[in-house]
Design brief:
This protein is an alpha+beta fold. The chain has 6 helices and 19 strands. It has a 12-stranded mixed sheet, with helices on one face.
Amino acid sequence: MSNPRVLLLAAGFGLVSMGMTGCGGGQPAISHNLRPAQIKAEILARVDAWQSTAATIEETYQTGAHTQQFQLRLMTQAHPASFSLQESSSGSPSTVWVSDSQETTRYQAGAAHYAIVAGTTPTVQQRRVLGVGLAAILHASRVQSARISGNQAVVTMISPVTSAVSAKTVLWFNLATNSPLKWQASWRGGQVTETVKSFAVNPSLSRSDFQFSPPAGVTPEVVLSQAGVALDEAKQQVTFPIVMPPGQTDLTLNQVTVNTDQGKRLVLLNFSQGNGQPVLITESSAGSLAPPAGVSLVTETVGTLSIRVGALPLGGEMAAFRVSHTLVVAEGPTAEIDSMLTAWGNLTSAPNPGSASANATPASP
């Protein structure tokens, strides 16, 4: 199950400070007799008209018994598609993402460098729901129920919060101020809620709001791929080292996803071979692997690695082994998995195997 970490709102029904400008305020209430799909359509028509937004949000992210609190400041505009997102949490340095529609810059406070990536990583896209991006997720959502109480609408939906995961979502929306009050998403193993502290519809924003000005002495890193930035972000979300296949393997990293399963974090690394066939590597801090139904694993030794390996029912191979404190599970074409295991086994036979594997990179990140 993917970890959506979507930008979701959680506000109670109490007082919420709303800074409203432009055409956002003064919207008339809609009929209480509308069907759920009609209520969603009315909200969508108003959100579609947003040209820019500015919000401060409190986010609560829960996986199992683990809870994290974040404070978010988000500015977005529709044309050109741009955003500025700042995240902070107690005990951690703040992180800022700024996009001017051509590239996205990511910087963590105190770092000596900032990263630049063409386009926008999926991780950041998911955390921009409460800006002009709210319209896109409403368009893609399937409404289940809706009700109106006074000027407040509550809509329950099934929404695609990542490319692989749909979640039960609930939107609280103020029909008088044309602004969201609350957004919540729940999926197996987790839930995100967000509290809007302030929200402005169509504020006056300038080009400089979507340009990154680095602190004195801070220099850019080499321009990264989207997968490279996502990998950097994933490393900050897990407590175990993320290890990469040896550089001599013919693999290209395409996507990185942080998942949650039974309250534990997983990292999914989606690679492709030179011929385009997929290879999936799942990493976690788990002590062992319970193989899926229909898969029998035997133990083999490659270099210093003790590997459990077996054939997959629909073709290909699965292998599980540990590198330092990380459990690695690889799935893909048999020849590619065998070649990767040989390279990895030889690498870990060298001095400081944990460090070497952790620093290895795919051929084309």
